[in-house]
Amino acid sequence: MNERLPAGFDLEPERYELQEAPFLDLELARRDFFKAAGGGLIVLLFLPAAAAAQEAGGGRRGRGFGGRMPAEIGAWLHIGEDGAVTSFTGKVEVGQGSRTSLAQAVAEELRVPADSVRMVMGDTALVPFDGGTAGSQTTPAMVPQLRRAAAAARELLIDLAAREWKEDRGLLEAAGGKVIHSRTGQAVDYGKLTRGRKLVEAVGAGAALTPASAWKVCGQPVPRAGGVDLVTGRHRYASDQRLPGMLYGKVLRPPAFGASLVSLDAKEAEAIEGVMLARDGGFAGVAAPSEREAERALAALKAEWKTSPQTAAKDLFEILKQGPGEGRDREGRPEQERGSIEEGLAAADFRLESAYTVAYIAHAPLEHRAALAEWKDGALTVWTGTQRPFGVRGELARALGVPEERVRVIVPDTGSGYGGKHTGEAAVEAARIARAAGKPVKVVWTREEEFTWAYFRPAGLIEVRSGVKKDGAITAWEFRNYNSGASAIRPLYDIPNLKVEFRPSRSPLRQGSYRALAATANHFARESHLDELARQAGIDPLELRRRNLKDPRLLAVLAAAAERFGWGRARAAGRGFGIAAGFEKGSYVAYCAEVAAAAATGKPAPEVKVERLVTAFECGAILNPDNLRNQVEGAVIMGLGGALFEAIEFEDGRILNPRFSEYRVPRFGDVPVLDTVLLDRKDLPSAGAGETPIVGVAPAIANAIFDAIGLRLRSMPLLKSRG
Amino acid sequence: MPRAFELKINGASRQVETDPRRSLLSVLRDDLDLTGSKYGCGEGECGACTVLLDGRAARSCQVAVEAAAGREITTIEGLAKDSKLHPVQQAFLEAGAMQCGYCTPGMVLAVVALLGQKPKPDEAEVARALQGNLCRCGTYPRILAAVRLAAGIAEERKR
Asked: Looking at beta carbons, which residues of chain A come within 8 Å of B131?
């Protein structure tokens, strides 16, 4: 088997000895690939062992291609006999522009135009295993993999031409989809080079990558792939899929969280013509030839529920402070600790203690959870919108009791996720009902279901204790986050005495991932608290940050935001300026906000209008400046919602505002003047950018409100949640 | 009781037999397979289901099919003529006014309706006209830029 491995690939014997299956049967791979792709050249890229282990997520079952491909393969691409370039990845497009930026990555190294690269994404039968589209990892992890595979393909094509022409390969170069002889100008298309061949090449590190300073396709504002299908409505999202004979499925929901089904009388529902019932333990669903009949059938189900007492919203932060419950580690582990808080406080001229809270909020993706499931000969195919196609395949396999190899998940480009679609609820529901009905079934959640039965961004309580000297040097920083999470909990500020802790809690509501996770909560508390320290010490808030910062990248975005904003200029009455900065997932951001605010007498929240928001952002070498600007602006606008008015209201295990008429999200009229400064660091690797620009919107605004009217708001949302 | 209706959709006549009170959106999507109109909220709050009724923007999830019969219905599928994009569609592409694209069909039609009534809207007029159309990805500044492009208003944004 070893002789099949390409030169330069480091085999790690101790790792592979543990495997039962052959490491990689290239013959089998070859058959599978060419059955799917036709002739030509296929390049498989092996991941370094560490990355592969991470991708495999501890499990080793069922990779792409019917489970026969090992997790060590991170990417593959195919150059057809017609020269068509197809690249395969387990990442998905949920609006963040990955279909475009990944095509750019392939095109850059293969020396072809970006729109000539077709990306096959998120189809578990066709693409390499992938842990999920999350954590801003597509850019730092998948882009280099595809670039390495494409660079290797380019070199292989040059080899083929050199052999064919019996020429020194050093005289040949690739450009415009051809291999060209640099002296004679002789040229041959990639397609012609691969014609009549069925080549599979497995590569390790791949060829050298093109440095960002020499990029021709990356770094360009390449327009969105598939844009025409979006503006014409031709693109079919999961919720738009249909199959012949398909039924519409609806799921019986409990009246409240924590309720369990005691009994179910389905006679009346089943009496409706064409209605099928699916029962599986506590699960009950119906299917009917039309959505309306399915709704009728659902309404005809007579269910008896047993409810249990649920947390009252007023007790939320007290409960979060109580920790995870009996038998579990209540103290948590310090994320970071140095020096002595007490000594630091003793050395300070001013001491401060504040607590900040963050409400549960919903992702509210405009496309709801949706899935179409079809069973054929015991094998299951599900079209669904998710950020984790392989994760959902696993969920389906477990829930339906079928091997992963018999489950295929296909993810059409999805109507957004924001971290809210890591799970496959609708997929499992559709598969259950389809199995009972014996026909394909589509389940599309209603907006109310999406607001109630999806998961939320965690609520949190953050307590901060600190001390600062007259000259602005922060001497002590104790920071404790209850429940919301540890992302970006460590400050980039240089503080000698520091204790930073995250304590998990027992959340009364189902919570999960969300764009930037807890980085937003932690930045809200940290950057608000810094503002409070600056005010107390009588130091300009920008100056206070500078005095406690050494990180040149954070200083650079702060300087860029302050300069564009005109920090330090005089402000009109009723206006206030606020500043905030942050770092997460490899990228850096700073904001300056201008608000118009007035204290509203007799009302809990002031009248606030965000007038202007300057954002400076740096994520290394910019892959696509137009898409990046779109992501930064979009994250900032989404951030306005959580900052100002988004909050899930709940009582007795029920969500009280499960509609867009009751849960306010940012609309046209909420958008301030946005001014976005992008710093392009071609000397640094590209980091993800879809999440980080959200993290500091709230503190910038909260600090500006204080600046305007002297009112310190320490809870997100800053304003009341309903109109 | 189901009744037969003749719907004039994108210049063609389509026959449907259905409950008169069913929403136009569900008839478009489920009976006629015109899935460009999206379900977003079912209460007329998000605009994803926007279609044109006699040239005016309407929430198809809030319009009963019987109320749509006899009127000119334009859905996103009918906007491009002879495979040539409508200027508003073209402007959305040029401005890159989309992320996930789920709101895009409704946005495009809402802008077509706006420009039909107000060929050169100012920023406040655009914001007011599109206040009922949600873009959860937050591409509002780009949609504004697309409206300006489509309306032939000079672009002032720095890009």
From this structure: 667-669
